[in-house]
Amino acid sequence: MDVLLLRPAPRNERFGLGPFFRTEPLGLEYVAAALEARGHRAKVVDLRFGESVERALARYRPGMVGVACLHSLEIDDSLDVARQVRRASPDVFLMLGGHSAAAFPGPLKSPDVNAIAVGDGERVAADVAEALARGRSLREVPGLLVNTGGDGFVATPEAEPVGLDEVPLPARHAVVSSFRHYACLQYRPTWLVETARGCPFRCSFCSVWPLYQRSYRMRSIDAVCRDFASVGPHVFVADDLFWHRMDRSRELAGELRRRAVRKEWVLVQCRTDLVASQPQLLEAWRPFAKKIDIFFGLEAATDGNLDGLTKDTTVASTVEAIKVAREYGYGVTGNFVIDPEWDEEDFERLWAFVDEHRLHRAGYTILTPLPGTPYYETVRDRIRATQWAQFDMSHLLWEPKVGAQRFFELYCKTWRRSVLNLRGSKRWWQWIGEVKPQHALFLMRALSRTQRMMDPQYYLSEHRLGPAGAPWTSETPVPHTIAAS
């Protein structure tokens, strides 16, 4: 079959760090690789970069279309793409998939959609294409919600998790847009590499571990080395938890060194307690790249707030991890979450912690109840958002303790401690000096957009909540499926 895979363009990139993080559609590239391994033909169209749904359908004439829904904030965008596909190609088979679709499929049960993948997309998409090609019933395909028409969406048998080495390396050749679009911070182009999938921890605000049932699957050392060797000098490692298995991490670092695979810049994500307890791994990995940044889930500046997030670590581990990372020459970045229930003293404690430990490269997001998380289940009755794009961790979903005006004043005062504040210690020309001349315009535009994060009026201009005491029902215009899902 000819299969077209579409990555929607999210409408929410006005806020947060979206301009700095436009990464390749790695999940769709793996799905394309799995389809090709079964003899199908796949194209990946990234709708963020100019291509239209209608033009892509006319050009590739697919028998099957897959639309990604990666995050709850993109639910409306994915459904909009599904409607465009259905208008242009009424008879094409249309499936939605991706992390959010698997973790919380309820809002995606649209008449325009034939099926929703709730298992690993690499296997499910290939099984669906094979069933369609052979005229088999989709009810025989594990890992689906199938739109039956009169009976609504019906679940097929549960799919077994895919072994990560069952799938070839990502089919980057299937992406029709130029890789020059893909950037991470000031590094452009940036490639994504996945070495493992899942997380065994249990943070209350995270949807990764519930979806994968706290499992942690690893790709083989050989596959990871070949993937690293195949991409360019700037790499964002997509793993939610790098360095989790000490022996395997040490073996991977040694094999990359043996194969003489090195990079200019690498960004990895990890927990502070893992880094604090395993300094020898940072020593083993340091030769891999000229510059390595660690993105920590810093989350909170007090043990009480960490406990409230079920983070299962301590501030002492945070401080030790920062120390270890800097001793080995790693860049330290990360994220803190800002709770709408904070008062002014909570903000002040965070500011003091950031200043004391020189964490000015950290970012800040509003604690958001993402569907599919334990936190969502505890606060769902309070949510008063009016559209899914508000789940971008930069909007408030209910009125905060100190009131919206004061909350955003304090939130923006927090962001002004960031290196992104061009009125702070790092100016335009210092940023521009870190990139190649051909990338300077991109960086200037991204930095210009991030200055909105320092302006409370910008947040307030889009602060829209539904009426208090009116929970979402099936009659609520936008995201009406939350109460029922």
A few lines on this structure:
The chain is an alpha/beta fold and about 475 residues long.
Helix content: 25-40%
Question: Hey, roughly how much beta strand do the residues contain?
Answer: 15-25%
Q: Going across the major beta sheet, what is the strand order? A: 3-1-4-5-6-7-8
CATH topology heading of the largest domain: pyruvate-formate lyase- activating enzyme
Q: Categorize the overall geometry.
A: globular
CATH architecture of the largest domain: Alpha-Beta Horseshoe
How many helical stretches? Answer: 18
How many beta-strand segments?
17
**How many separate domains?**
2
N- and C-termini, Cα separation: 33 Å
- Rg of Cα set: 22 Å
Q: What average pLDDT do the residues reach?
A: 90
List the helices and strands and how they pair.
Blueprint: E1 2-7, E2 21-22, H1 26-37, E3 41-46, H2 53-60, E4 64-68, H3 75-88, E5 93-97, H4 99-103, E6 115-117, H5 121-134, E7 144-147, E8 153-155, E9 183-184, E10 191-193, E11 196-198, H6 208-212, E12 216-218, H7 221-230, E13 234-237, H8 246-258, E14 263-270, H9 272-277, H10 279-285, E15 289-299, H11 303-308, H12 315-327, E16 331-338, H13 344-356, E17 362-366, H14 374-379, H15 404-415, H16 428-432, H17 440-450, H18 456-461
Parallel strand pairs: 1-3, 1-4, 4-5, 5-6, 10-13, 13-14, 14-15, 15-16, 16-17
Antiparallel strand pairs: 2-9, 6-7, 7-8, 11-12
Describe the protein:
With 485 residues, this protein is of the alpha/beta class. The chain has helices at 26-37, 53-60, 75-88, 99-103, 121-134, 208-212, 221-230, 246-258, 272-277, 279-285, 303-308, 315-327, 344-356, 374-379, 404-415, 428-432, 440-450, 456-461; strands at residues 2-7, 21-22, 41-46, 64-68, 93-97, 115-117, 144-147, 153-155, 183-184, 191-193, 196-198, 216-218, 234-237, 263-270, 289-299, 331-338, 362-366. The strands form four sheets. Strands 3-1-4-5-6-7-8 form a seven-stranded mixed beta sheet, sandwiched between helices. Helix 1 (26-37) packs across helix 5 and helix 7 (221-230) packs across helix 8. The longest helix is centred in the N-terminal third of the chain and has 14 residues, at 75-88. The two termini are 33 Å apart.
